[in-house]
Structures are given as structure tokens and as C-alpha cells.
Amino acid sequence: MRVLAVDYGTRGVGLAICDELRITVRPLAALRVARLKREEIAARIADTAQEYNVETIVVGLPLRMDGTRGDAARRVAGFIEALRRKTPAAVVEWDERLTSRAADERLRERGVDHRKRREMSDATAAAIILEDYLAENERRNAIAARDYVARPDTDA
Description:
This protein has helices spanning about 40-50, 70-85, 100-110, 115-150, and strands at about 1-10, 10-20, 25-30, 55-60, 90-95. It is of the alpha/beta class.
């Protein structure tokens, strides 16, 4: 099943999705949300999740550099609760520190001009969030498989 990532911002909400095998990640879109209410944004994302048959939605949580929650993280936490009310998909918080900076850097390295970078930044940040989430899940699954094989006394 697919995973959808969300980079929730005040001006735009970036979306990215992986393929069904969770191998490739691609930016989907950036929603311009300046005049939309949190519930409307959550409904649009829930519709997108349903359209793509998404099992999990990963929402970037903008923690402070020391790992604590500030105003931005509390705002995103409120959005996460609204999204959970709109979708049957699992909604997961994911530490997104420095993803916007990494997205800008990635686009700059690809030679994308400043104006286009602003348009693509939110969806690219969502793609980075999703890449990080998938890589961590792969790492955890590998450790779990290794630990399972290492216990020969386990009844299978």
C-alpha cells in the first residue's frame, strides 16, 4: 500500500507519494492554502489519500532544533487531529527538522531558478519527509528480521 507525505505550512501544503512497493517517491503537488480552513485542507488531503489508495499519511512535524514543540508544531498537531477525523488511513507524525532547507538545496543543485523553487519547495519537502520515513521503516524492519532470525528457540 502507498504512503502519502504532507508538509503542512501556512502558505502551502506539499504532498508526496510513494509507489505501492514503497521504492520510489515523487512529489505530487503543493496546495495553496492561504484562504482555506484547516478542516478544508484535511478534507482535500483525505480525498487525495483515498484516490491513491493510501494506507498511511505521514505529516511532517516542525520540531525545534532541541526537539521540543513550539507554536508551529502545535499548529501542525491541530491539523493532524483534523486529518485523523477525515480519513481512515493511519496518520503518523514525523520529525521534519531542516526538510525545507534540504528541499531548497536539492532544487538549487538541480538548477531550478528561485521563482520555480518557491513553487516546488513544499512538495519537495514532503518527498524528503517520505524518503526519511520509508528509510527508517526499512531499517527497523531489517533489525526486526535480524533479531527474529537470531532467536532459534522461537516457534514459528
